[in-house]
Amino acid sequence: MTGLSPVFPEAVLWDMDGTLLDTEPIWDEAMDALAARHGVPMTPQLRRATLGNNSVDALTKVYDAARLPESGRDFDADEAWMVAMVVKLFARELPWRPGAVALLDLVAAAEIPMVLVTNTMREVADIAIETIGAHRFVATVCGDEVAVGKPAPDIYLRAAEIVGAAPGDCLAIEDSPTGAAAAHAAGVPNLVVPSQIPVAAASKRVFRQTLAGLTVDDLARLFAQARTDTPA
């Protein structure tokens, strides 16, 4: 096999929060405030359960923790409140995850199409995309632009459709159990670089501690491994 050219994915599908940008501490702050708004503490267990969720799933878990009856669950009002708070928090400096900028540049130089695939709603995501650079991607897909957000497969299936590739020919880069589950459900091989909580092993899933130091040849190797790997 020596001397053969590496096989690159047809597209790289990037998660945003916790993968490209170190925004999970900002979401921690917002989720703490949301829980307090409903009179419950944001315990480590509850935060782990909501990490990477779309807004409906995250709100439902907070409502359940608060034992809020169905009649008292105002998703629209609480989502608007969360959006306003997170927009304000995102207006501060958004730090990059280690190695993210360099790898974005290397993938672009290799002319591999990239799609940003985030559960964050468009109104909030666009603020972060200004930091990342919309020009880097052929498209960006947000959680409120598909029928069901992560961990459902919809958002990854949509991203693969946009680039005209089979899901199994793309590579997803994720940090959370919710995002990795979405990629898995869509049949997209995924590279997981955990940010806050561990992600379980699964088929078509490989792991790395950081994006720092990765080359495009490394990415091709990890892609090949993810396409064939089964969990240990």
TrEMBL record:
Keywords: Hydrolase. SUPFAM superfamilies: HAD-like. InterPro entries: HAD-like_sf, HAD-SF_hydro_IA, HAD_sf, PGP-like_dom2. The keyword Transmembrane helix does not apply. NCBIfam families: HAD-SF-IA-v3. The keyword Amino-acid biosynthesis does not apply. Pfam families: Hydrolase. It comes from Gordonia phosphorivorans. This is HAD family hydrolase. GO terms for molecular function: hydrolase activity. The lineage of its organism: Bacteria, Bacillati, Actinomycetota, Actinomycetes, Mycobacteriales. It comes from the Bacteria.
